[in-house]
Amino acid sequence: MKKFISLFFMLIFIISIILITSCSDGNSQSNENSNNDLPIGENNAQASDAPEDTTQNPRFAVKEDIPEDLDFGGINFNIIYLTWGMFNDYYFAEEEIGEHMNDAIYRRTKNVEERFNITINPIPGNDSIHPAILRSVRAGSDDYQLALNHCVGGIIDLTTGGIVQDWNKIPIVDFSKPWWNQNMNQTLAIDDILLTAVSDFIIFDPNVIYFNKRMAQDLDLGDVYQIVRDGK
Q1: Do residues 82 and 153 make contact, with C-beta atoms less than 8 angstroms apart?
Q2: How many CB atoms lie within 10 A of CB 54?
Q3: CATH class belonging to 12-18+68-205
């Protein structure tokens, strides 16, 4: 029976055979500190509009060491995904439309297709795709090569039902590369068996917590930022 190679994330768990994206480290801590003392009501947006100089970021200088002559003969690389939330908006793009995220995703897909001679074929699932994954693996049909799933989407069934493979035994995958989350992968490994792995492929769902600075001042709450950092 053919095994289904699954790569899950703490927030968004995915299967990933090819990975050529890397993300730059943010300056959120330094920006947050510099904005703490701004008067209430002032615009805190002081970030420069200049593009990031990625040439100075060591993450962009690392070679992935994937053989240059890999050619998969134009096969379809099928990706089944959930049809809600960021799965719909931030993983696939049909064309360039002049929007930064959309166009970056489109170019990433085209670069992968051209380099490995494949056609990436997104397959819309539904609110829960793990039943389709289970059926495919148990039937040995190899319908999907990658799945975008949520951490509540049948993870127990997939990891304990003989559905996933040990990532440490997958050729070419090099967990020493900076686009892999070393700490998470060490935490998720059991007896050196890694059924789940975390990388930069995912795009985290951004969430924001707001507070009213004037009310915090009137109520004499102190430095709210520091209260959060102190875990209080």
Answers
A1: yes
A2: 11
A3: alpha beta
Q: Tell me: pLDDT of 70 over 80.
A: yes
pLDDT, residue 59, reads: 58
Q: Distances from the Cα of 55 to the Cαs of 19, 21, 42, in angstroms?
A: 20, 15, 34
**Cα separation of 30 and 34, whole Å?**
6
User: Please, how many CA atoms are within 13 Å of residue 41, restricted to the half-sphere of its CB?
Assistant: 3
Cβ atoms of residues 225 and 36 within 8 Å: yes
* Distance, CA of 30 to chain centre: 24
Q: Kindly list the strands in the beta sheet with 75-81, ordered across the sheet, starting from the edge strand earlier in the chain.
A: 12-14, 146-150, 75-81, 118-124
Q: Return the beta strands (E) in 18-177 as ranges.
A: 75-81, 118-124, 146-150
In one-letter notation, the amino acid at residue 146 is: L
In sequence order, the 6+-apart residues with CB closer than 8 A to the CB of 223 are: 36
Residues 6+ apart with CB under 8 A from 213: 40, 224
| Model pTM above 0.85 | no
- The Cα–Cα gap between 20 and 26 comes to 19
Q: Taking the C-alpha atoms of 198, 200, 205 and 208 in order, what is their torsion angle to the nearest 10 degrees? A: 110
Domain map (residue ranges) of the chain? 12-18+68-205
Residue 28's pLDDT band (boundaries 50, 70, 90)?
very low
> What length does the chain have?
232
